[in-house]
Design brief:
The complex is a heterodimer of chains A (about 240) and B (about 290). With about 240 residues, chain A is an alpha/beta fold. Chain A has seven helices and 15 strands. Classes of the chains: A alpha/beta (about 240), B alpha+beta (about 290). At the A-B interface, helix 1 of A face helix 5, helix 7 and helix 8 of B.
């Protein structure tokens, strides 16, 4: 049996996935969830092999939900938006169904899943954040709660092994992602990578002062200090126009 | 007309000296011929001929001045006409682009809404064919409404609401389990008039932000009241400030603001408010006398 979940906020849309999936007897739908919060719980509870995931959903999007899972199951996106297509494949989706879709198109996606199910899946999360549009918020998990952080509240990001720590006025949060994908997701006019392990919010800088030879120190609005490397400094000068 | 005639005679740019020289030459020729005619007519009256000779330059100056004056007036008149023409053309262009913009703003259909509705129909076709057919008809009616050409025509609130209900029916098929829309209409507002398709995008916005901004049930209210010569229309939806930084905020509203400006030339007809957990937008529609 292949354990499956459907996550879609429109019952009819979830219904058609169920209807089409009934053609394949080896799949079993364990739960139909109506938003990302339910979806997250159900994924942790059932450990499914495959999920059908809508993108535009209440409060958090399908992408944001996926980012919160450490080892996500195989995903087939179902959405009416096609602006997300590029991102969906970056997120290692098996396939991407544009609503409305036919039984034939659906079966193709299932075959694709079956063909890939035998191969070991690469744990590749790079590029999950490569949005078509620049993101203006971050979704993190604090124990069992989901928190949405508006991007302008972030003072700076710091790399910590596999995680990024997000420093805000309200506290510090951890999120599993790479500096590269974070840098790509941020608006270059608002954030700058000033160091191998630091990305700062340009609006939160109060002072730049020389530190050691060829390096500088940023004083942030909340009192924190962020080191700036030589290349980071020239990048900073460029974006700030100094 | 005048412009076209004068167009050929009006000196352009560097030829401005012609304006002075041509009348001078013309008046000189005129004065000369004049003099010869007078000499021929008054042949023998020596005193008069001498008088003519003495005042030759004075008469020339007079005639030249008069001619220069006439030329200047002609130019001024033609310039004025030209200006008027340009102004008219500009007005026409503005009117045309305003029309185009209004049409475009009215027709901004959310493709997301369309595709998701089609997807719902796709789901209903097998399980509830009757319901599917109903939805096809509603969707068609709705689409027909959005491409109606005539935006000068105002509708009564009641007529507009009938159209809105069609839209709501579609949304209810999609989100019936979560969505509740409540109308609170003051009796005296039902016959008041408003431009077509002004409320729908506001309602759509409220539904979208309600549905995607919070989890669980979403209650949307539409209230109307009459105050002096205005129809007031207020739409509220639940709102979660935490999730508010989603994409796509505001678009619906800015295009409505633009439309109101194009229709009434005013920017104070739309007001938004955030109170506790609700977002409300109030629309003020001036009534034609």
């Amino acid at each position: 049996m292949i354990k499956t979940l459907i996550i879609d906020d429109e019952p009819l849309a979830a219904g058609i996935v169920q209807e089409f999936l009934a053609e394949f007897s080896q799949f079993q739908v364990l739960e139909v969830c109506q938003d990302g919060f339910q979806g997250l719980k159900a994924i942790q509870h059932h450990q499914p092999d495959l999920i059908f995931l809508d993108i535009q959903m209440p409060k958090i999007t399908g992408f944001e939900m996926l980012e919160l899972i450490d080892s996500p199951p195989a995903v087939i996106f179902t959405t009416a938006f096609d602006q997300y297509a590029v991102k969906a494949f970056d997120a290692m989706a098996i396939d991407y169904l544009l609503k409305p879709f036919s039984q034939e198109r659906f079966s193709k996606a299932i075959e694709k899943f079956l063909a890939q199910a035998n191969e070991p899946r690469v744990e590749e999360r790079e590029g999950l954040n490569q949005l078509a549009e620049k993101s203006n918020r971050l979704v993190v998990r604090v124990k069992n709660e989901i928190k949405i952080i508006p991007i302008h509240e972030v003072t700076y990001f710091e790399a910590e092994d596999d995680y990024i720590s997000i420093h805000t006025h309200g506290g510090k949060y951890l999120k599993k992602m790479t500096m590269k994908s974070l840098e790509d997701a941020m608006d270059p006019g608002k954030f700058a990578r000033v160091h191998r392990s630091f990305i700062v919010n340009l609006n939160q800088i109060t002072q730049i002062e020389p530190f050691e030879r060829d390096s500088y120190l940023l004083k942030m609005r909340d009192g924190a200090q962020v080191p700036v490397s030589k290349t980071g400094y020239s990048r900073l000068r460029q974006v700030l126009g100094i | 007309m005048l412009e076209r005639i004068f167009g050929f005679y009006i000196p352009k740019g560097g030829n401005n000296w012609l304006l002075l020289v041509l009348p001078l030459l013309l008046s000189l020729a005129g004065i000369y011929s004049h003099r010869f005619i007078l000499q021929w007519v008054f042949d023998g009256e020596l005193a008069y001929i001498d008088f003519l000779k003495d005042h030759f330059f004075l008469r020339w100056a007079f005639l030249a001045l008069a001619e220069i004056f006439v030329a200047l007036i002609a130019i001024v008149v033609s310039k004025l006409e030209q200006q008027e023409e340009t102004r008219k053309r500009e007005m026409m262009m503005n009117e045309l682009s305003r029309e185009a913009e209004l049409t475009q703003l009215r027709q901004q259909l959310q493709p997301h809404f369309l595709f998701n509705s089609l997807n719902s129909i796709n789901a209903l076709v097998v399980s509830q064919p009757k319901k599917a057919r109903e939805m096809v008809l509603q969707l068609s009616e709705f689409l027909r409404g959005t491409i109606r050409k005539d935006h000068h025509q105002w509708l009564s609130l009641e007529e507009e609401l009938n159209y809105l209900k069609m839209y709501l029916e579609i949304e209810r098929v999609r989100f019936g389990h979560r969505l509740e829309v409540q109308f609170e209409l003051a009796e005296d507002t039902k016959s008041m008039l408003l431009p077509q398709l002004l409320i729908q995008p506001l309602l759509e916005n409220a539904i979208k932000h309600g549905l995607y901004g919070v989890t669980g049930e979403v209650k949307i209210t539409l209230q109307t009241r009459k105050e002096s010569n205005y129809l007031f229309l207020k739409i509220t939806n639940p709102f979660d400030p935490e999730a508010a930084s989603t994409q796509g905020t505001g678009f619906g509203l800015s295009s409505i603001e633009r439309r109101l400006f194009l229709l009434f030339g005013r920017k104070d007809l739309l007001e938004t408010k955030i109170e506790n957990q609700t977002f409300s937008v109030e629309l003020k529609i001036p009534q034609l006398k």
